[in-house]
Structure formats: C-alpha cells, structure tokens
Amino acid sequence: MTLSATKRIKALLIWMTIIIMLVAFLFPIYWMVLSSVKTQIENLAYPPRFLVKPTTKNYQVIFVRENYLRYIKNSVIVALGSVIFSLLLGIPAAYSIVHYKQKRVALFLLLGRILPGVSVLIPWFVVYARLKLIDTYIGVVMAHMIQVFPLVTWLMITYFSEIPASLHDQGMIDGCSIYGILQKIILPLSTPGLATAAILAFIFSWNNFMFSLVFAQSRTMTLPIAAYKFIGYGEIDWGGITAAATVITLPVMVLGLVIQRWVVQGLTLGALKG
Predict the structure, then answer these.
(1) What is the CATH number of the domain that holds 71?
(2) pLDDT tens digits for 49-88?
(3) How many domains does the chain divide into?
C-alpha cells in the first residue's frame, strides 16, 4: 500500500469518526425539535414519523397557557444572580488560595464540588424553612451557588496560579494593596478565565434541576421545573415537554456557539503551564 493511499484511508477514517460523532450529538437535538412540532398521536406513532406537518400548538401551550415567559425571567434572574455572587466571592477566594497557598481550603472547596447535592438537601431545606427562604430568589440563588461557587473558584485558581508571582511583588513595591493588585494586575490578565468561569457557571445554573425542584415553587419556578410539569402520572405530554426542552436548550446553544472561541481559549490557556 502506497503512502498516499494510507493517508487517504486515515483521512477517511477521521471523517467517518467525525460524522458518527456529529450524528450522535445532533440527532437527539433534531428529534427534540421535531417532536416539539408534532401532535401527541404523531409522537406516539410506531414506527416513528420523520415527515410530518409541523404544528405550533405545543409552543402556544407553553407560552400562552403555561406563561413560560415568567419561567424564563426566573431562570435568567437566578442564573445571573448565582454567577454574579459566585464571581464576587470566588475571585478573592481563588486569589487568596493561590497567593497564600491555602491548599486545605482548596481541597475543602473541591470536596464541596464533588459532594452529591442530594446529601445537603435535607439540612438546607430545614434551614430554608426556618429562615423563610423557600420560593425566594435569594434562596434559590444561594442553592445554585452550592455547585456554581466551587466551579468558579477552581477555574480561577487555575488561572491565577499561572500568573508569575513577580507581578504581585512588583505591585507591592509600587504601593498597591492586595485588592489593588487583584483589580489592576491580576484580573486584566485573567480575562479569558473570567469569561470561561462566568459562561460555564451560567450554564450550570440555567440547567440546574434538583435544587430548583426543592427550593423554587410557584413564584420562583425555573424552566427545568416548569418542563417537569408535562410529566403526568399516567401519560407524558411529549409535544409539550420537547417544546419546553427546546426553549431551555436554545439559549444555551446560541450562547455556546457565540462564545465558543473564548471558552476554548480560556480552558486551553488555563491548562497550560507558563
């Protein structure tokens, strides 16, 4: 076998692998969108129907009858709130951990990140009930921060650890305080990391189900919980739940496509050693 033939076979195998991965990733999204414009009878038909006359009935249900604009507003408020507060707390925490080499604190945060969320639901529910934080925006935001805050902190730890310590020393010589060094030197050099942390934190909060299910009720109900309402005791409204899933997924997909370059750059730079 000639060298050119070997290269062609390798290229063919690579493209086949890419196509298989794309189909495996895109087909569930395609099927979700297709099911959202089908009737219940068409969704339950066997064999499955790929060619149907689209209907907007399911979207009319979620936006008119179920008032999904309110749930979208709740999800935006909770996601942005958890991202903002996690950044405000996580950035100084990450800088302190890196600068003062607080490895035990970092380990504690890591344990908080990998700890199953269900293990803290009952204690938090008792505390929330006594403080009357259930079904409040601040309560749901704090619950989401259980997962978002450690994520933001660890991402920023990775970035801050790559910045030379000499820059900190130079800032101290020039008369800057710790907060001045963080604001004027460290953060400007960590812009890709900040963007990556904020985006990933937003996505984690936007898709959070478990904490919203427990702590968010009628007033602060988010999109994932609203979609769960289409699952009944004896039947699942496939058109409604896939329409709701499309509404939940679309903003995250658009956001991911728009800022994917910054996310990839941020994750790559954070993985490199200077």
Answers:
(1) 1.10.3720.10
(2) 888 889 999 999 999 988 899 999 999 999 999 999 999 9
(3) 1
